[in-house]
Amino acid sequence: MEPQGTQDHGRGHSFWQETRPVKNWVAGLIILLLFFGAAAALLIVPGQMHYLAGPHTYVLQERASLMDAGPNLMRSFTGTANGQEQRIMYSAQLQLETAAVETAAAQLQTVVTAMDGQVMESRRWTADSRPYLRLQVRVPVERFDESLAALAAVGEVKEQSMQGQDVTQEYVDITARLRNKQQQEQRYLELLGDAQSVDEVLAVERELERIRVEIESMQGRIQFLESRTDFASITVTVTEPVTPQWAGVAWDLLLQDMVQVLVDSLQGMLLFLSAILPWAVLVIIVLWLLLRRRR
Question: What is the pTM of this model?
Fold first, then answer.
């Protein structure tokens, strides 16, 4: 007769051998759950982290521009050519940084109004957790320099540039062609008064219609050139300063991304568990029933 301890040990060893497959399956399922849960969490993590603050994202490099020439800049572009006053289409771009975009928006509007200008377009958006404002304004060309200086004073200038397109020759050519067409129109009107037949009247009227279409086209182009040379276009973009950084990292954005990654990971784990858990329970029950039948 074997000792009681030996019998208990044998029964325990036998039970361990019988239940070992179940335990192996359970351990395997747990490992699979952890693996696929982590993979699912990584798949839904946002693909772009904003806390790495490289120069291409946050730093607006200053560059030399025509505005550095001072308040008399426009006078160096104006003058006369062959006795004809030059007509130049001016445009400028300003990129400003200020403590509060909303405050800057009100100040910019005040400047535009004081310069007898108009806001032609306004746009607001947010990028990398920074608010942006863009205004496209038109001001009288004689107040172009003054307007640029006043707009630049609203914030810290990070980038500025100016362009001038001389359209004097085009304006002179179209004006001369318009005068010729108007004289031609006058001659056809005289011919229309002297017409003796219906055919002559119709022929003259056809020519008058063609000439008047050309005159209207030229007048439209002249009005466009006058509008663009009498008023200058200025595009102002305003944003707020970059978040303070240390070692090239914006820590508040990093913290936001860490929290978001944690939330997304938990969401991925829950979604995966909700999909796999019923099947895992079913497999465990089937294995347990099979082991019971073996006993």
Answer: 0.56
Q: How far is 284 from 26, CA to CA, in rounded Å? A: 7
Spell out the alpha helix ranges (H) of 44-116: 55-58, 101-114
Cross-strand bridge partners of residue 130: 127
**Of 261, 39, 12, 232, residue with least CA distance to 136:** 232
Per-residue pLDDT in tens (0 to 9) along the chain, 295 residues:
445 544 444 444 554 455 555 556 555 655 655 555 555 544 444 444 444 433 333 233 333 343 444 444 444 344 555 556 799 999 999 999 999 999 999 999 999 999 999 999 999 999 888 899 999 999 999 999 999 999 999 999 999 999 999 999 999 999 999 999 999 999 999 888 888 888 888 988 999 999 999 999 999 999 999 999 999 999 999 999 876 655 555 566 667 778 888 888 888 888 888 888 888 788 888 877 777 777 6
Q: Are strands 88-97 and 231-239 parallel, antiparallel or unpaired?
A: parallel
Q: How many Å apart are CA 291 and CA 237, to the nearest integer?
A: 73
CA distance linking residue 207 with residue 192, whole number of Å: 10
**DSSP β-bridge partners for residue 162:** 92
Q: Which residues contact 216 (CB under 8 A, 6 or more apart)?
A: none
Specify the residue for token string 């001038």: 164
Select 60-165+231-239's CATH number: 3.30.70, 1.10.8, 3.40.50, 2.40.128. Answer: 3.30.70
Angle 60-260-278 from CA coordinates, rounded to 5°:
150
Query: How many whole angstroms separate alpha carbon 233 and alpha carbon 121?
Result: 11
Instruction: Give the C-alpha separation, 160 to 152, whole Å.
Output: 9
203 DSSP assignment: H
Indicate the SS3 state at residue 100.
coil
Amino acid at 280: A
